[in-house]
Amino acid sequence: MILYGLRGVGKTVLLNRIQIDAQALGFANIRVEAPEERSLPAVLIPALRGTLLRLDRSQAIRDVLQRARNALSGFAQALRVKYNDIEVGLDFPVEPGLADSGDLDSDLTDLFMTIGQAGREYGTAMVLFIDELQYVQNDQLASLLRAIHNANQAQLPIIMLAAGLPQLISQLGRAKSYAERLFEFIEIGRLDDPAARSALEIPAARAGVDFTPEAIGHILQKTLGYPYFLQEWGRFSWEVADESPITEDVAIQASELALNELDRGFFRVRFDRLTPTERRYLRAMADLGPGPHRSGDIAERLGRNVTNVAPVRSSLIKKGMLYSPAHGDNAFTVPLFDGFMKRIMPPIS
Asked: What CA dihedral angle connects 226, 228, 233 and 239, to 10 degrees?
């Protein structure tokens, strides 16, 4: 299963919830977050080590589990030079010829096959949870898909659930053409009006507090139904209000406080990662509105041609700031970011 959507819609929360449920059912969970500056093997190895150590706590170590540990050790040793960010040391022995060729494609497949066999022997499923999957480099993503596909074909109990930004869909397709058959793709988006109202009203009602319809309307108009923003507006409305019901005047004050908070944190941490050229590109996009916008329109706003600004666009997509909902289109991955860019930078002249 692949959960995809913009920032702040609850993908990670849902992934965490599924992981908790899987653990309650007795599945062996492997949880990683794919960072931008590290390789997939570097984050997988320590997570797999922890899972394999936990698997035998209440049972004797079986040969198949020992073999899975040997495979992980060989995998780590063989790829340590190729991916020099692998730091974890393993105290498992190595089985020559098992996941130790130094080729990620074949070694990751060997590793997943042996881990899947261990899961089957222990009567459990090995569930790999990966957050921010869009940051995995294309060649490593292809190796990961190949390994999952081979384990699936062998009917081994090893599965993957991941979350990422919208560009992940096209990345998976480019990595392996059969990716669309491997996963169920579920878009996580903003809440519709009834759900957004419930998100505000139900928690408050449990504490004996109501919102006026006008306050709810103001908050929905400002947040556009995005879950994280509903949380922030609801929090500040609660803090500002002296009594029930929470009125529109309170919601207006909460809007100012929520935007200040977002500007200092949620928006700012992403803005600070950008180069001056990337900031100008996003400011030009903001001038055009929430989006999506054609690449040519953005280039024209910058006074340049599409070819010249194409590397900037690619860099912003790689950093997870933009995605392309259709060929030639560009949209912010962070909701309301156009408003933040207008508040923090002057217009492009």
From this structure: 160
Q: Are strands 322-323 and 126-131 parallel, antiparallel or unpaired?
A: unpaired
Query: What are the backbone dihedrals phi and psi of residue 19, each rounded to the nearest 5 degrees, phi first?
Result: -65, -45
The answer to whether residue 349 is domain-embedded is: no
Local structure of residue 93 (DSSP, 8 states): -
Are 226 and 171 found together in one domain? no
* Residue 49, both tokens: 């080590």
Query: Does residue 228 sit in helix, strand or coil?
Result: helix
110 exposure class (CB count in 10 Å sphere: 0-12, 13-18, 19+): buried
Q: Indicate which CATH number applies to the domain containing 296.
A: 1.10.10.10
In contact, 341 and 282? CB cutoff 8 Å: yes
The pLDDT tens digits for 25-69 are 989 999 999 988 889 999 999 999 888 888 765 555 678 888 898
pLDDT, tens digit (0-9, with 9 covering 90-100), for 283-320 = 999 999 888 999 999 999 999 999 999 999 999 998 98
The kind and range of the H/E element at 293 are strand 293-294
Question: Is the pTM here over 0.85, yes or no?
Answer: yes
Residues 168 and 21 in one domain: yes
